[in-house]
Amino acid sequence: MANITQVVTALKQGQVIGYPTEAVFGVGCDPDNQQAVNKLLALKQRPIEKGLILIAADYEQLLPYIDDSQLTPQQKQTVLASWPGPVTWVMPTKANVPAFLTGQFSTIAVRVTAHPLVQQLCREFGKPITSTSANLTGLEPGRTVADVELQLGDKLAAILDGETEGRTNPSEIRDAQTGNIFRQG
User: Fold this and answer.
1) Ranges for the YrdC-like domain (predicted)?
2) What pTM does this model have?
């Protein structure tokens, strides 16, 4: 049985957690808690300008962050047809989405995960969490709980017990409005 309750509690307390995704482990936090996001960026040594990915249990969890009215029906259909799954879409944001999530962009990268444990985590937390690979800059992303504990164990409040879904590559990243591919999956 996964330790979801412990991980949700850590998220609600503004902590940074680790969790399995489709290919590698991710680290995440509450996207609405600026202090938590700052902790995550410091831990990853990641510049705020790069922005963050949000990972969710379903499309509805993303609606407070994305402005899908800027997508054509065909663009929205293309996005929805790829979810749940390992495709991250860069979408226009709502005006109130803070720069600590979007970085230098007026868009945000979002994904509806197919990973059942992460879906459950987001449902129990009640919203998306941030998603960036569980590694220190320059090192390989962790693919097991042990890998994550080795690199980041002392920096994370909790690590969700589970396994990745065995994909070799991280999620593909595409632009929802243009279809351009930023990162191959």
Assistant:
1) 1-185
2) 0.94
Cα–Cα distances (Å) from 119 to 51, 59, 71, in that order, read 22, 11, 25
For 63-85, how does the pLDDT look when each residue is reduced to its tens digit (9 = 90+)? Answer: 999 999 999 999 999 999 999 99
Bridge partners of 53, per DSSP, are 109, 131
User: What is the CATH topology of the domain spanning 4-183?
Assistant: DHBP synthase (3.90.870)
Kindly report, residue by residue over 101-133, the tens digit of the pLDDT: 999 999 999 999 999 999 999 999 999 999 999
Report which of 156, 109, 161 is spatially closest to residue 5, judged by C-alpha positions: 161
Q: Which of 117, 98, 122 is closest to 108 using CA atoms?
A: 98
User: What is the enclosing helix (H) or strand (E) of 111?
Assistant: strand 107-112
The CA-based angle 19-23-27, given to 5 degrees, is 30
- Locate the domains of the chain by residue range: 4-183
In the 8-state DSSP scheme, what is residue 171?
P
